[in-house]
Amino acid sequence: MRLSKYLMPTLREVPAEAEIVSHQLMLRAGIMRKLASGVYSYLPMGLRSLKKVENIIREEMDKQDAIEVLMSALLPAESYQASGRWDVFGQSMFRLKDRSNRDFCLGPTHEEIFTETVKATIKSYKQLPVTLYQIQTKYRDEARPRFGVIRSREFIMKDAYSFDKDEKGLDESYQKMYKAYRSAFDRLDMDYMIVDADSGAMGGSGSQEFMVKSEIGEDSIAFCDACNYCANIEKAVCVPEENLSKEEMKELTKVHTPNAGTIEELVAFLNTTADKFAKTLIYKAEDKLVAVMVRGDREVNEVKLANYLGVTEVELAPASDVCEVTNARVGFAGPVGLKIDVICDNEVANMQNFVVGANESDYHYTNVNIERDFTPSHIGDFRNIEKGDKCPVCGKPIDICKGIEVGHIFKLGTKYSKALDCTFLDENGKAQVPIMGCYGIGVSRCVAAIVEEHSDEKGIIWPMNVAPYHVNIVCANMKDEDAVKLSEELYNKFLENGVEVIYDDRNERAGVKFNDADLIGIPIRITVGKKAKEGIVEYKLRCSDEITEVNADDVVKMAMDEIKDKLN
Ligand code: ATP
Ligand code: MG
To answer: Could you report the per-residue pLDDT of 222-246, keeping only the tens digit for each?
Structure first.
C-alpha cells in the first residue's frame, strides 16, 4: 500500500478526551475515530489489526472444535423476557421498538439466542456436545464509557456457548475453551493472568477471567507469589485471623460523639484506630433491608453479600431508609437494638469491646460485644481482601494489582436451557436440559490492551502477529530519484513475495515520515535515503533503537526472515 493513496490520518496533538496511552495512540495513529461517547469507527490500519486479532481467536476456537455462526445484533425481546434478563439488564440494554410496536434490543450478550438456536436444531444426545461461537458486535449502554474501546458502548466480542449432556461433558468443554484462550492470548502477545472469578448467585459452578495486568484496569486482582493463587477481589477468600488474646468484656457505654459520622471523624474524636470500630452499613437487596458489619478499616464486598443473599445485585440503602430503620442520621447505624437482620463479617465476630453506632444521631456505643449486646443473623466472609492479608491457600501475604478483563470463561449450568425450555432426548428417550458454559473475549478491548502494553513515548510497537503491516519502506526524499527508484524496486519485491508492506511515498519531510513510522508502529522500517545510489538502505526494528546499514539486495530476505521468526 502506498501511503500517498492511503487513509492514515495521524495526529500530532494528544486528543484531550483520551486519558490513557492506548486511547491516545489509537486516535493519534489513525486507527479509529470517535463518533459518539463509547462509539468508534475503525480506519484502515485499525481494521487490519482488529481482523488479525479476530483471526487468531477464530483459529484457536476452531482448533478446539467450536463451530462459528453469526447471530443478529437486533434481537426480539421475548427470549430475554423468558430468561428474566429483559429486566436485569436495566439501563445498560439498548432498547427499541419496531413499526408494529414490538420490543427489540441490541444484543448485549447472546446466551438466550444461542439457547434458542440449539433448542431449534438439536434433538438428540448424539448431537452433543456442541460449542457454537460468533465474533460479533455487542451493545451495552455503559454508565461510564471510557478509555476508548476498553469500555465502549458498541464493541466486538467473541462469544461462545457450550452445550453438554452432563457435568463431566461441561468440564471437558470448559477445559477446551481454557486451552483455546491460553493459546489465543499467547499469540496475541498479551501478558495475562488467569484469575478465579465470581460465578454469581445463580449457581454457576466455576468461572475464570483472563486479565491483563495494568494500572488502568478496573478490576482488582488478589495474587500470591508464593503459591500462584490468583482471584478477582470480588471472589478472593478472606481467612479470619485466629483470635489469640481474649479481652475481658467491659461495660457497654453510650458516648456522645457530636457530628462524628465517618470513621475518620470518629478515630480523631475517640483518639483510637479504625480497627477498633465495626461499621454497620444498611444495604438494600431487592426490597429487603439488611445490615452488614465489617471492621472500621475494611470494605464490604458487595458480590459476596449478593451471593449470600441470593440476589444479582445489592446497593447501599438510600438515606431515607437508613434513617427509618436506625432512627438516626446516616453515620450512626449500629447493631444494638436494630430490628433488621445483621450480617457480620468473620473479623468482626472475633472482636471484643469495640465501637459501633448507637442508632441515635451523634451517639456511639463503646465496649460492644457480640452475643451479649446483639446477635448476628449470620457470620461469614463479607469483606474485600487487602494487601498483606493471608493467602487463603498457603497463608503467605497477598498482593493486589489492577487488571483489564479481556476474557471470561464460565460454567453456566442450566439457567438458560431451563428458562427457555431447551431439551434433548437422552439415551433412554427422556427429555433432558443441556448443561451450558459461556465464554467471552472482548476482541476490540484486546486491541486496546495490546496497544496499552506494547508502546513507548513515540507510539505503538505492534507485535508481529497483529501489526497492520509488517514492513514500512520510508523514502526519505521523494525528490531524490535514486531513492525513489530503489524504494519502488524494494516495494515491488516485497509485494511479489506476498509481504504485507506499506511504502511511505508521501511528499513529506523525512522527519515527518519517521515520526509517523514510530507512531503507527510497523515492526520493520526500511529507510531509503542518501546512500540509495550505492545500494545501501537502513534497517530498523520498531522494538529496538539500533539502525543498521544493509545492502538493498539483502534487505528483503532479512525482513522476511524476521517476519517468519516472529509470526506464530
Ligand atoms: P466488565 O466487567 O468489564 O463490564 P463483563 O464481565 O460485563 O465486563 P462479559 O459479559 O463477561 O463482560 O463479556 C465478555 C468480554 O467482553 C469481557 O471479558 C470483556 O473483555 C468484553 N467487554 C465487556 N464489556 C465491554 C465493553 N463495554 N467494552 C469493550 N469490551 C467489553
Ligand atoms: Mg465478565
So the answer is: 999 999 999 999 999 999 887 667 7
> To test the ligand 1 pocket, which listed residue (92, 106, 302, 408) has its Cβ within 8 A of the most ligand atoms?
408
pLDDT digits (tens, 9 = 90+) for 299-316: 999 999 999 999 888 999
Are the beta carbons of 343 and 377 closer than 8 angstroms? yes
First vs last C-alpha separation in the chain = 24
* 203/396 Cα distance (integer angstroms): 30
Residue 407 Cα to ligand 1 middle (Å): 8
CB 403 within 8 A of CB 286: no
Run of H or E including 115: helix 111-121
Is residue 102 classed exposed, middle or buried when 0-12, 13-18 and 19+ CB atoms within 10 A define those classes?
exposed
Residue 209 CA to ligand 2 centre (angstroms): 7
- Give CA–CA dist 322/291, Å, rounded: 10
Quick: pLDDT tens for 47-97. Answer: 999 999 999 999 999 999 999 999 999 999 999 999 999 998 999 999 999
Cα–Cα distance measured from residue 400 to residue 398, given in angstroms and rounded to the nearest whole number: 7
C-alpha 386/C-alpha 296 separation (Å) is 14
Evaluate if residue 461 carries a pLDDT over 70. yes
Minimum-distance ligand 1 atom for the alpha carbon of 209: 18
Query: What predicted TM-score, i.e. pTM, was given to this entire model?
Result: 0.92
For atom 8 of ligand 1, the residue with the nearest CA is 405
How far away, in angstroms, is 455 Cα from ligand 1 center?
23
pLDDT at 106 over 80: yes
Most ligand 1 atoms within 8 A of CB, residue of 405, 439, 443, 446 to mutate: 405
Q: Look at residues 136, 78, 51 and name the one whose alpha carbon lies nearest to residue 440.
A: 136
Pocket of ligand 1 (CB under 6 A): 109, 140, 142, 151-152, 155, 157, 405-408, 440, 442, 444-445
